[in-house]
Specification:
Blueprint lengths: L2 H11 L7 H17 L15 H19 L2 H4 L2 H21 L1 H6 L8 H25 L4 E4 L2 E4 L2 E4 L2 H4 L1 H18 L4 H33 L1 H5 L1 H36 L1 H6 L1
Antiparallel strand pairs: 1-2, 2-3
Helix pairs in contact: 3-5, 7-10, 9-10, 9-12, 10-12
Length: 273
């Protein structure tokens, strides 16, 4: 049923720079779903495991699919797969089964193409903020840089901060990276998980600033062709590497802070551990 849907997004939407994270999120979600489904593939039937709520969820998922497919609304067309999968799990394995695969289904939200008007409305303020931060940092370091809106002038070169460098899609990609890190690490401290999930947003913003600075420096020292060529893709790798390093660093700081907080509130249990 979803073959035409994913064929369309693979060929059209996910082939763009802004939505290039879609196939990666989709592949990781399928891998996580497979890991969650394996314990449920028991050869013995599970009595009274299913939930009738699954049929209602399946109805709404099918309705979203029909409307999204017929009217070419991607957010409903692609997003309906989450509801349909959740409904199937509820029907055959109930709420306990859904708890085992809730994160892969939630993670699939990051592969859904967002409406263009919403993306445009949110992206411009983000690009302005990233451009301002990059210009301020480089000016403080002594580089000959000026800014007009989202256009950076360094030396004889002008650089336009594009959507792919500092847009909402990039923020979504980095947020997905952070949540995947949280799911893999699986901290026992709920406070630490919540704080790190909230801090992923400013971390993503900082990683975008780092990427713009790296691209600006590449253009300044090696010319416009280097900045727009292979090294432009290298700057994208810098974005994710810097985001991952920032997440790990912030996680380490939170570990120390949460440990000290636990010691101050529960000194006996902290000493025992």
């Amino acid at each position: 049923m979803y073959t035409p849907t994913f064929t369309n997004v693979f060929r059209v939407v996910w082939s763009t720079d802004e939505q290039a994270h879609g196939p990666i999120v989709f592949a990781i979600s399928l891998w996580l779903l497979a890991k969650g489904f394996m314990p449920m593939l028991s050869p013995e039937p599970v009595a009274d495991a299913g939930s009738r709520w699954g049929w209602g969820l399946l109805f709404f998922g099918g309705l979203f699919y029909v409307v999204g497919r017929s009217q070419e609304v991607l957010i409903l067309d692609v997003g309906s797969v989450i509801w349909v999968l959740a409904a199937v799990v509820l029907i055959f394995r109930g709420v306990d089964g859904l708890k085992k695969v809730w994160f892969p289904l939630f993670f699939m939200l990051f592969m859904i193409p967002l409406p263009g008007p919403f993306v445009d409305a949110v992206t411009m303020p983000m690009k302005m903020a990233v451009s301002y931060a990059a210009e301020s940092i480089m000016y403080a370091l002594g580089f000959p840089i000026a800014r007009s809106g989202v256009i950076l002038q360094i030396g004889q070169y002008q650089l336009l901060v594009a959507d792919a460098c500092a847009g909402l899609h990039t923020l979504f990609t980095l947020e997905a990276l952070g949540l995947l890190y949280l799911n893999i690490i699986k901290h026992q401290s709920a406070l630490r998980n919540v704080l790190l999930a909230v801090l992923i947003v400013p971390i993503s913003f900082s990683a975008n600033v780092v990427r713009v600075i790296v691209l600006t420096l590449i253009t300044y020292f090696f010319g416009d062709e280097a900045g727009q060529g292979f090294l432009h893709g290298f700057a994208g790798m810098v974005l994710f590497l810097s985001a991952l390093l920032l997440i790990i660093a912030v996680d380490g700081i939170l570990r120390v802070l949460v440990h000290r907080y636990s010691q101050s509130r529960f000194p006996e249990s902290a000493n025992a551990s």
